[in-house]
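Methods, example record. To illustrate the input and output format used throughout this study, we show the complete record for Peptidyl-tRNA hydrolase. The sequence lines were provided to the predictor; the line carrying structure tokens was produced by it.
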Amino acid sequence: MDADLALIVGLGNPGPRYEGNRHNIGFLVLDELAARVGGKFKAHKSGAEIVEGRLSGHRVVLAKPRSFMNLSGGPVASAVKFFKPTTIVVVHDELDLPFAQLRMKLGGGDNGHNGLRSITKSLATKDYHRLRFGVDRPSGRQDPADYVLKDFSTVERKQLALEIDRAADAAEALVTKGLEAAQNSFH
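The corresponding predicted structure is encoded as:
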């Protein structure tokens, strides 16, 4: 095995009912990364769908937990135990950022994101990279939990493919160039 291995996890909910939801942006970004490495997701004993490959010469494992978002920690911890990555990146939706704005960081709180809370609890650490994809806050009194389980708006969908591509570029830069260089390029 290579000395350096990055595990890139995309958060979402399994099944066709959730495919276009804001909460599934992590899955959508990982689908783009899988296309770049020329792989197809396959079931793995970790409880995630997995693709192994290389991004710009760096070995990566792409993982989409088969559990619901709020239970992502178990499959992520199993994948970490199995693959022993040197870097972990979690791609997820972020209510506190405008649509398609990207932010990357190492560690931090979960900001009410149950998928992150589950991962932090299962890994017993907050020290993993996060690639946050802005989905904006709902207007009015709409419950944020309901909002993230709705599909992107018509206007957002017109830009979505381009923004997913840009988020995949950011994930690739994070893995290949490091956090600071990726932040300088994408923030």
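Annotations derived from this record:
The first helix runs from residue 25 to 37.
The radius of gyration is 15 Å.
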